[in-house]
Specification:
The chain is α/β, with parallel strands linked by helices and 264 residues long. The chain is built from eight helices and nine strands. It has a seven-stranded parallel beta sheet with strand order 1-2-3-4-5-6-7, covered by helices on one side. Strands 8-9 form a two-stranded antiparallel sheet. The longest helix has 18 residues.
Amino acid sequence: MFDLHTHTHHSCDARATMLELAVAAQQAGLAGIAFTDHVEWFPDDGAYQYLHVDAFFAELEAARAQVNGALTLLAGVELGNPHTFPAEAATLLAAGPWDCVIGSLHWPGGAPGWRRETFAAGMEAAYALYFEDLIHLATHGEFDILGHLDLVRRNSHALFHQALPLDAYAEPIRAALQALIARGKGLEINTSGAGYGLPGPLPDLAVLRWYRELGGELLVLGSDAHLPEHVGRHFTAARELALAAGFTRLAYFAQRQVAGWMPL
């Protein structure tokens, strides 16, 4: 399997080198890993202007030489709110030979999703805002894979030890999933949920079943690792979840295209 969501010291909230994550991926028995460091355009975000593309690709080439083909190392990036900043996203994506691009909703409605003030109007209102904006991201954002679809659950649990069930938000979630399918975009099972006290990955089995029932096929796994020891974490549980939802294979990317499939 491939871990298509990890962070190195090129992200403001991580410190590991690419080689350290690559070694961890080998130890976890993975076939490949994508380094998907943060890019954000809200000035109040710690990732604003943090990634230096030339330094990123220079380290990637050095790491590829060091692993010498024993592991596939992919050039990835995680774009926050690419639908809000389409021109900036286009410029960034033109700056390097990316293999896979994650689109994430870190600032729902222009508000920082990980801060308490975003939930000031109530938990239900914050969830509604998040999923309505998710439709815009899925419909208009430039990316290959939608990251942690229900990130609002992880944020609310981290802040308030509460995560709402998603049944009440089925309509906007399904609309976002339909947009992904229509545009040929992938969906990530993000396995970081357990690290935040949630019972499983993001999204859960119900959402994965909706995606499959609607015709979704492009599914990937991502640990969202910010530490080497988290690379490939909880992938066994994610695999079981994917199988339970009706999937039989996982996609992996190269040059922003599906490069192949791996059976579950």
